[in-house]
Amino acid sequence: MLTNDQLDRWDRDNFFHPSTHLGQHARGESPSRIVTGGSGVYIEDRDGTKLLDAFAGLYCVNVGYGRSEIADAIAEQAKQLAYYHAYVGHGTEASITLAKMVLDRAPENMSKVYFGLGGSDANETNVKMVWYYNNILGRPEKKKIISRWRGYHGSGIMTGSLTGLAGFHNKFDLPRAPILHTEAPYYFRRADLDMSEADFVAHCVAELEAMIEREGADTIAAFIGEPVLGTGGLVPPPAGYWQAIQRVLKKHDILLIVDEVVTAFGRLGAMFGSDKHGLEADIITIAKGLTSAYAPLSGSIFSKRMWEVLERGTDENGPIGHGWTYSAHPIGTAAGVANLKLIDSLGLVENAGKTGAYFNAAMADALSGHAHVGDVRGEGMMCAVEFVKDKASRAFFETSDKVGPKLATALLGQGVIARAMPQGDIIGFAPPLCLTEAEADIVVDGFKAAVGEVFG
Ligand code: PMP
């Protein structure tokens, strides 16, 4: 077995970590953690430290750690058939079963699911299919995609462009055409507009309409959004937002891509956020909760109206020119089948609604009175606490104050993992959907102590 010193050196000498300060890590100036195990809502590291993971990895380990039902399904699939491709009509029992299970749970108007590996490649698939769709319909100019500032849709070239966060664009020459960004439905951040919430929704809609007018509706193919903003700050939309946005999209024949990478399969206390928020998607992106991250797998679910055009396209042009070697990987789809069965048998969608409401209420109770807490918000098993320098004027801290990272570090000292979100002093919580009320109390008590430590 490798010693801790060896692992530490090999890590810093060889491993390019995602979303990491590369120089600090390579020089050994920033903390690292070697994770060795997990059970329920806890992970354990090599030093024997046990931490309550209140962000479920990257809001993906929805059933919790250490579920032998999924591990066994993966092992059985690997022994029987570790791999075969899905090109030219090939399938496995796992991939065919999972496609049916996804469609059985998806909103009524959905028709087929394409399987990829992660959320980024799924959104890449979506953009290609939107372009293909408009080419088959004979409108080659209708190609631009509207996203929102603070939306998160991946970190590839196209999907990093869809993402509306500066940290994912800077020095990467992103965003690239033909991606446009419009106002995020983030009322709390826009105190500068001095509007009621209803007026703010009207403002978001007016911004969108002005963009469509400026660019020309015949150049805009699709709009992409998460039902509840995730990485951009965990922000539920203001009342009426999605209804009003969808009216505009329908009027201009603009497709709607609902990115449910975080929200699908229960996180909001409903199987899909689309159903809960009244979203009529043309495409739904799924990933994380599809396998609870026991194996990499994503999906793009296409509506009947899109599917008909895609079918027509291949009748006219031959097989669809799109696919990954690992599309519908048997091990991923076997994990997905076992995971969705577990979500049902454990009642995790209901628990996310019920315990999520308890968790959000307890967090608000504990923290909303604090002088530097500007907002406590959430939905289902998602909760965010946003910090301000001054509550009355809603003045925000400087990035250099590092309030978010300091809070996350103090919380780690309490044995709880949460995430300092990338833009703003926002601490995000998105625990496994199996969280109990007692575990929610541990998170809230730990965070209250951490806030006390940072602000004195
Ligand atoms: N869409 C959303 C809404 C996400 O939150 C994420 C990842 N956090 C992605 C897409 C990208 O998924 P991946 O990291 O698996 O590529």
UniProtKB/TrEMBL annotation:
Keyword Transferase belongs to the record: yes
Top-level division of the source organism's lineage: Bacteria
Gene Ontology molecular function, alphabetical: transaminase activity
Protein name: Aspartate aminotransferase family protein
Keyword field contains Transferase: yes
One Pfam family it belongs to: Aminotran_3
Transmembrane segments: none
Record-linked InterPro entries: Aminotrans_3, Aminotrans_3_PPA_site, PyrdxlP-dep_Trfase, PyrdxlP-dep_Trfase_major, PyrdxlP-dep_Trfase_small
Similarity field: Belongs to the class-III pyridoxal-phosphate-dependent aminotransferase family.
Organism: Devosia algicola
Cofactor(s) for this UniProt protein: pyridoxal 5'-phosphate
This protein's UniProt keywords: Aminotransferase, Pyridoxal phosphate, Transferase
